[in-house]
Amino acid sequence: IKWWAIDCEKNLNMNKSRYFQVIYLKRSVVKDPALAVEGEKRIEWARRHMPVLERIKQEFEREKPLHGARIAACLHVTVETANLITTLVAGGAEVAVTGSNPLSTQDEVAAALAARGLHVYAFRGENEQEYYDCIKKALELQPNVSLDDGADTIAIIHKELPELAEQMLGGCEETTTGVLRLRAMADDKALLYPVIAVNDAETKMMFDNRYGTGQSTLHGIMQATNFLFAGKTVVVVGYGWCGRGFAMRARGLGANVIVVEVEPRKALEAAMDGYRVLPMHRAAPLGDLFVTLTGDINVIREEHFARMKDQAILANSGHFNVEIDIPALEKMAAERSEVQNNVAEYRLRDGRRLYLLAEGRLINLAAAYGHPPEVMDMSFANQALAVRYIVEHGRSLERKVYAVPVEIDRRVAELKLAAMGLETEKLTAEQEKYLHSWQMGT
């Protein structure tokens, strides 16, 4: 045990009080290796519901298109992610896995991947130092491809390891938040290698963000609180694809939905979708539940907390825990207590109580399983095929953010339709000619 603690201290700067909660293996840092059996069962269950990714895996096994790729994958360590990692390994890649959020790692999944011999540096409940140390451990693989949920790996490479960027073929980013960060880097001419915005593929954004986030956010809130949506006023902050999906699902359960949005076209869309549209200061006194889905910082602030009703609930479904101004809430509170798992009560000086779920981290993974595998099937199919594209074309790409090639997006849709037993209509030769001709008018 003394050797193990010393080796832990040398390889990962963890607080000594946590040594006996986290286990350091030869290639991995996980909570408990004994969880691997349970993790394997859950990974297999998800695999059965991810037919598109399974087909790509079989293709990768035959062709080995990722031979020579070394991939640092900073993703939510879930059963769906495990099937993506398995697909990449089948293609010939060497992969190091680390978590992209301190509360989203499923420890049984991390243990199962470690038991397969992969480099895994992730456990639920990491503090901030441990979180970044785990990412840096993954980067010891000396990757030439990065996969990100939130762009933290890319940020560390650019800030601390710029020499590593020179060998990078490219990267993939799967979140709205991360894509925003990367586009800002590209605009500043600071991006050192090409990145594909997997988040913006239609077969990702329109389904993962809308249906996946819509359902899994509800699941996380209900898992944490057993909240009854029917008859309650739910304030949805942000009306992108994630906000649309959650608003739709909340209304489906009988909630009265208010949308808060800064972009006039999205606000107009929300109004025409039948929702009440208000600025936050007017929505604050009305809401029973507030959910942020913007990718921006401090969208619920001190002046809004001051107007909220007693026992209002606050949850975030954006990637980082910055959308709710937690420091301001702590400053306003006379007392803070954990009333149950993933529910913190902030008792304000005037006696009102506000409840913050899962430390303001993304509720669908911190308090639930995350998106269903049927949805992640498309997202991770895009991810796997985008990695192949990077390995094959990365040296010829410029240092900018790229859209997923349309042929990949269409192929994922076609494979998903086939897996669902659905067929599309086919254009006739006459219709094809008409669509590509300007001579044929009325």
Structure description:
With 442 residues, this protein is an alpha/beta fold. Helices cover 45% and strands 17% of the residues. It has helices spanning 2-11, 36-47, 51-63, 79-90, 107-115, 128-139, 152-160, 162-165, 176-187, 202-225, 241-252, 264-272, 280-283, 302-305, 326-332, 363-366, 373-393, 406-419, 429-435; strands at residues 23-24, 28-30, 70-75, 94-99, 119-121, 145-148, 170-173, 195-197, 233-237, 256-260, 276-277, 289-292, 312-316, 333-340, 343-348, 353-357, 401-403. The chain has a nine-stranded mixed sheet, with helices on both faces. An eight-stranded mixed sheet has the order 11-10-9-12-13-16-15-14. Helix 2 packs across helix 4 and helix 10 (202-225) packs across helix 11. 50% of the residues are buried. Mean pLDDT is 93; it is low at 1-10 and 15-20.
Report low-confidence residues grouped into runs of 5 or more. 1-10, 15-20
**Strand percentage:** 15-25%
The average pLDDT score comes to 93
Taking the alpha carbons of the first and last residues, their distance comes to 83 Å
Give me the count of strands.
17
Summarize the amount of helix as a percent range.
40-55%
Query: Helices and strands: which structural class?
Result: alpha/beta
Number of contiguous helices: 19
Main sheet makeup: 9 strands, mixed
Radius of gyration: 23 Å
Q: Indicate the overall shape.
A: globular
For the largest beta sheet, what order do the strands appear in spatially?
1-2-5-4-3-6-7-8-17
